Each structure stands twice: as structure tokens, then as C-alpha cells.
Amino acid sequence: MDQTAHSSTPPGKQMLSEQVYARLRDAIMRGDHPPGAPLKPQDLAKEQGVSLAVVREALVRVVGEGLADRLPNRGFAVPSFSDRRWQEIAEARRTVEPVVLRMSIERGDVDWEARVRAAHHRLVRTPAYAPEESEYYTGAWAEAHRAFHRTLLEGCGNRALLETFDRLWTQSELARRWSAHRNPERDGAKEHRRLEEAVLARDADTAAAVLVQHLTLTAAALTDDSGQAT
């Protein structure tokens, strides 16, 4: 029996769909499509020279990541940025991530500890800003930052929880890219170092508290009223 018979998507079409999805995702994250902008399948298909079916498949995937909204009339649009929306994401992260971090500290093995050290080292050694990338964090730093936070949680061994983290993180990054707020007095490197130290010391209480504080400061930096982010 042909083992590929169960697959409904030909390999060529699947690769094309992946490429279109990746380009659309990157375009949204770069801000090529501003907050609230419609994502018209016909226009996207014409721009990328692909079928409507391929574009719709890519749009469904970015909706699943929280990078687009599906409108009541079955259209698509980039999410509208609002303090309330960001606060909901921040609240979800402050609720979920400290719990998963505790699980990770309890269950993580020596290999996980080594990955945490490596991820932190990479983050420390990656420049956060570059003149050619304007006021935004560099792409390399953004990825190192994501990898560090995800590695902290990977010791939990629960795929469903890690997928929840991935989705919340992606939405957080979109909000971060759109925000014009920046706190030059904040020492993010120190926060990450304290987090790594507490995790490797297997001090779950301290690690969870440091993470909550870290996420709270991030939320405050992305809203007009920092008093809301508590």
C-alpha cells in the first residue's frame, strides 16, 4: 500500500503553501500590513502568483497563531492593536508561564539545564539593536529571546502547554513590534540573568516570582497606563 495515499496534499503544493504562509507571517510581523488592515485573499494571491486556495490555507494558519482575525463576513484582517487586547495576552502569559516554569524545574533533567545555559549565553551575546533595523529589536535578538524563554519551559515535557506558550509569544511579539513605548532604564539583561540563575538553582518560588515581574514590566512597557499592568 502506498504510504502517501493518506496525504490529501501533494508535496509540491504543500511546499508552496508553506512558502506563502512564511512570507505572509513575516510581512505581518514586519508591519507591512498595519494593525486592522484587511488581508484580501485575491490581492495576496495576485501579489504572490499563487491560487486562492493556497492563500486561504496560509491565512487560516496565521489566524491560528493569533496574527490575523477572521471577520464575521468571512474576510481576514490584521488584529487591531489595543491596550485591552495586549493586557489579555499579558494576563494569560502571567497565569500560564509561571506554572509551566515550576513544572519544568521539577521535571527538567541535566540536558535541559545545559540547553538553558546555552540559550541564555546566545541571548547575552546577540546584539539587541542594529542601525539598519531602525528602533526595533534585531531579528536575531528576537529569536534568541524567544528561544531562551521557551527553553526555560521545555523541561515540563508537555507539548500542549508549550504550544500554548508559542501562540501567546507570537501575539506578544506582534504587540511589541507595534508599540512605540520603550523603557531605557529597564535592565532586561539583569532580569534574564536572575531568571536563569533561579531556574538552574532549582528555586521554583524565586524563578516564578522573577518571571511574573519580568512579564509585568513587559506589559507595562507596551501600554499607555503602566498602572494597569499589575
UniProtKB/TrEMBL annotation:
Superkingdom per UniProt: Bacteria
Gene3D superfamilies assigned to the protein according to its UniProt record, in alphabetical order: GntR ligand-binding domain-like (1.20.120.530), Winged helix-like DNA-binding domain superfamily/Winged helix DNA-binding domain (1.10.10.10)
SUPFAM superfamilies: GntR ligand-binding domain-like, Winged helix' DNA-binding domain
Keywords: DNA-binding, Transcription, Transcription regulation
SMART domains listed in its UniProt record: FCD, HTH_GNTR
Pfam families: FCD, GntR
The keyword Transcription regulation is assigned to this record: yes
Record InterPro entries: GntR_C, TF_FadR/GntR_C, Tscrpt_reg_HTH_GntR, WH-like_DNA-bd_sf, WH_DNA-bd_sf
Ranges of residues in domain HTH gntR-type: 14-81
PANTHER family registered for this protein in UniProt: GLUCONATE OPERON TRANSCRIPTIONAL REPRESSOR (PTHR43537:SF24), TRANSCRIPTIONAL REGULATOR, GNTR FAMILY (PTHR43537)
Protein name: GntR family transcriptional regulator
Record organism: Streptomyces phaeoluteigriseus
Lineage: Bacteria, Bacillati, Actinomycetota, Actinomycetes, Kitasatosporales
